[in-house]
């Protein structure tokens, strides 16, 4: 199969400053993978002609396909076409039909067109125009020196429109891709990245096609499986054997794949078992229930939440005995268990979950920052609480506590 290596370059100082997220690169990489194109590099460069020249020259030296987003507007710093033209020793010219379309737009809307709008109608000598049904500036595609260039507006809606209407077709014709890349994410909870990698070390070390990539983030770990084949069906078939072996080894930690989320899985299990749930949240301040109710259909199983941040709310509304508060404190397993039982009782749910702990920045009741208790009560059973010690700042500790709460529920519901 022919190997086609691609590079995606984003233009704009606003990307470097973090004012805009470079979602274009993510979308393009996903779409190109379906065509069997290997995206090996992402670059971002500001609106500076010399730095753009350096970045483009580097890309030309190592990539078969270069897609550039941004820098096609009418302002002085929109220099993408000029820099590429200079690099290819080509000139720019005004595409008359495009110029007429731009002029008509201003006439129809009763606006005055400034002279610099002419830049949007310029094409590179020998290039192909890619129509822009969502905006003014068309895309530009050119194959030169065994490299294919596709220049696109930075506005995501315009960029996607151009690619879907003609950009991908141009790429197929020029680079002659004859393969499909297929990826699948396997999502795990309750196992760390290092342990997961250890358990799969021989598979990872011997990988060729499919490839296996462990990924960590947001309190859980994932594995990205990627295969390349002549057709999508063949690529999927290649993944099945590897996926089956991974499940054989660490399947007890696997909760879903691709776009599955732990929160949605927990809600699905609650529905299946006919459970309802409520939460008592001190440390997390309602964050657990907020994540649950963002999922469509949550009203079927969610009763509500009590944010018991203040000790008086714990003792008054949720009736944590004074003896527990005085002898063990609010950051304790007894407090967490009582909160879980009483919130379930008061909100008439079959499950209660509670969160209490120290998010920081300072200790509480002599307890260190990051110490957290999560309590769970299921109607008719004894309550229990688990103790955890999380690292990180205040927000990180709260987020980890919520994720761990969903993990405990998932494990309890799947036993």
TrEMBL record:
* InterPro entries, A to Z: CinA, CinA-like_C, CinA_C, CinA_KH, Competence-induced_CinA, MoaB/Mog-like_dom_sf, MoaB/Mog_dom
The chain positions of domain MoaB/Mog read 7-173
From which residue to which does any coiled coil extend?
A: 225-252
SMART domains reported for this sequence: MoCF_biosynth
Identify the keywords attached in UniProt to this record, alphabetized. Answer: Coiled coil
Q: Name one Pfam family in it.
A: CinA
Family listed: Belongs to the CinA family.
Q: What is the name of this protein?
A: Putative competence-damage inducible protein
The scientific name of the source species is Pontibacillus halophilus JSM 076056 = DSM 19796
Question: By which gene is this protein encoded?
Answer: cinA
